Every structure is written in structure tokens, then in C-alpha cells.
Amino acid sequence: MSEQCLPTKRFCFGSFLGLKRYDDSGQSLVSQEITGTLALATTYFDGGVCKWENWLKKLATETIILCFSTLGPVQFIEEAQAAAIRANASALIFAASPTKQLVEEVDVITTVRVDILSGTRIRNYLARSPTVPVVKVGPSKTVIGEITAPSVAYFSSRGPSSLSPDILKPDITAPGIGILGAWPPKTPPTLLPGDHRSVEWNFQSGTSMSCPHVAGVMALVQSAHPDWSPSAIRSAIMTTAGTRDTSNDLILSGASMKPTDPFDIGAGHINPLKAMYPGLVYNTKTEDYVLFLCNIGYTDQQIKSMLLLHSESSTTCLPSHSCRTNADFNYPSITIPSLRSTRTIKRTVSNVGPNKNTVYFVDIVRPVGVEVKIWPRILVFSKCQQEHSYYVTFKPTKISSGRYVFGEITWTNGFHRVRSPLVVFLSNSGFVAK
């Protein structure tokens, strides 16, 4: 989730009993205060499983029901919402794993999302209370800076790539949770049965929401640099991406409190302003794509059909290609899918910074168990668009039967920081170097 400004729901219970509890982790749009008595799902649903078919035919009028995703289990929050509506509840408190905390944006019934620990505390408070607690759900308020962002949604696709494990995927992350956009009025905002609402705007989440953000940034960079190739723009976006959240800690994965790695976020979270001025870019040439297509099984004829007639590049899968993997593809990230012995790869960068005379120095964060050497360690540029190549040598320093380790290399001239993730799969157990 990439937003820093979040609509939240505040709820408290039993304030007249001397106890107040506020939870701003839930997100939703509520226009007015809702009050109801607190009840466990077991009162209204067989086995406490909040599903439509489990309703015990008891009405929960003016009641706010506490449901747990782990009972049943309830795979989707929409199931619990539909069940609460059938029971005529006023609202729903839904407890789920932190990795599954996601705003469903336009709820058909007022819903407060909490994690399992908070839900258990609420349940225990209800069990100990001498009287039935009353819950108040207040109107939504915009809260700034209280929730760290961004974080990676639990449903976001992770690497490695099954098609080409020697190229890091994903490339980048971008805002994709709770994105407001136009909506066809004849289509209800949710897929729940009985939702007959008509809206002109709706909140949506998913890759289809992230893609327009990235497309917009690419258009922005293209407008500033109309002579740049698509690969140069991709490089600018990837090498300037961030890996830290608003608290300056590593971006978290799916609210699980686990720091992300390149398989979660790729090169990092997109930064439009920095992408405008990357300093250096990794340009991908036709030869790189021919190498890639040869390595994934395309024939000479298939490759030839993809190239323009005036292209001077070879469309033949030469014998030399068999000695080169897609790790040699001039990509802004570096992935070694099986490191068993010393391996060297090459990268080429172009100077696109404002100064034609500039010097870049390299900084290395080595993956655990891997020695990384770069030559040369200094790149001296004397003109714009000048290209320089460097070589990265990887050498395993420990025995491993199969483990991914991560690092990064960063080229800097004191103003620009050109960062590339390193992904290495150590697999040298039982390997004897010749």
C-alpha cells in the first residue's frame, strides 16, 4: 500500500464502563456514527463461522458482530459481510491475519478490519465484561503520517520468474491499493449478492491500478527525454526506485512485519521525480533481445519475423549464445540463477546526467556467502551519452544446497545514485570445481 493519507475508521467500546479502545488500522468510508452492542459470531452463526449458509436465523439488529477469518475458515471478507447483512447486523468487526489486511474500499456494510491479536483482545474483553459492551464506530477521518507506507500487498505477485529466472521480476512496485477511479453506474461497486448501489466513482486495488501509475511516470520521463528508448526509461525508473518506507526502514511485505526483498518489490518503489534524472541508464540493444529469445527457445525464423526490415542485427542463434545466459542481458538488475563457481557478467551504462564530465564510484552490498568484485570500480565520463562497461564477478564463499541471497551495487557521483539489486541463488553443495 503506497498511500500516506488514509481514510480510517475509529471505533471504541464500553466507554461508559471506563474503557476506551481506539483502532485506526481499519480503513473505510463511513459518513456517520454507528452504535451497537458487541456480539461474537457464535451467537448468530453455526460454529462462529461467518458465512451465508451458517446463519442461525437469529436477527442481529443494532448489533456489531465480531468475526474471525480463521474460523471456517472465511477466505474472503465479502463472505463475512454477506453473512452480517443476512443477519441484519449494524456493522462487522473482521479479524484476519496481518498479511491479509486489505481495504475492500466500498463496503456494502460498515466493516472494521483488525488483526488476529486485536480481535482476540476484543473477544476476551467481551468475555470478561459484566454487561454487554456497546461499540461506537465513528465517521472516517483522514490520518496523515500514522501509518508507514508503502508496503507490499499480500496478493502482489512475487518472483522469481519461472520463464526466465536469470532476470529479476518484478521490476518495480507502484501504488495499487484503494485507487479512486471512474465507475460504470450500472455496475454495483462490489460483487456481493444484493448490492444494487449505483456509483460513478469507486476504489479498486490490484495490478490494473499500479500499471496506470507506471505508465504515467513513463510518459513523464518520455516528455522530458523524447530521445530516450523504452529500455532507458525502464532503467531510469528501476535504478532510482526506493526500498525504504516513511519511517526510513525497509518496506514491509504484506503487513507481515517482514522486510521485503527483491522478489517482493523488484528494484523498489517508483519515484517519479528521481526517475527524471537518473544520471546513468542501462540501454538494451537488439542483440540483447535476440540473446534472450534464443535462450528461451525461439527459432531464427520466429526472431526474424519480429525485427524491422532495416535492422542490421543478427537474427541467428549463434553457437556463442549457448555460452551466454540471460544474466548477460544488459538489465538494470543482476540475477544469477545458480551460482556454483566463479561467474563474471558484464553491464554497460550511458551517461545521461546534466554534466558531461563526471566520475562515478561504486558501492557494494554483498549477498551473504558471496564475494562480489567489480572492475573497474571507477567510471570516468567526458561527454554526454558516453558508454562505459564494467564487469561483476561472483564467487561463492560458503557451501549451500540452494538458497537465495540478496545484495546491491550503487554507482554514485555525489549527486546521482544508480542502484541495481543483486539476486544470487547459491547452489554449490557437492559441486567440485574443475
UniProtKB/TrEMBL annotation:
The keyword Protease is annotated on this UniProt entry: yes
Keywords: Hydrolase, Protease, Serine protease, Signal
One Pfam family named in its UniProt record: fn3_6
InterPro entries xref list: Peptidase_S8/S53_dom, Peptidase_S8/S53_dom_sf, Peptidase_S8_Ser-AS, SBT, Subtilisin-like_FN3
Superkingdom to which the source organism belongs: Eukaryota
Domain Subtilisin-like protease fibronectin type-III: 328-424
Peptidase S8/S53 domain ranges (all copies): 143-244
Record carries keyword Hydrolase: yes
Family statement drawn from the similarity comment of this UniProt entry: Belongs to the peptidase S8 family.
Protein name: Subtilisin-like protease fibronectin type-III domain-containing protein
Organism: Brassica cretica
Lineage, highest ranks first: Eukaryota, Viridiplantae, Streptophyta, Embryophyta, Tracheophyta
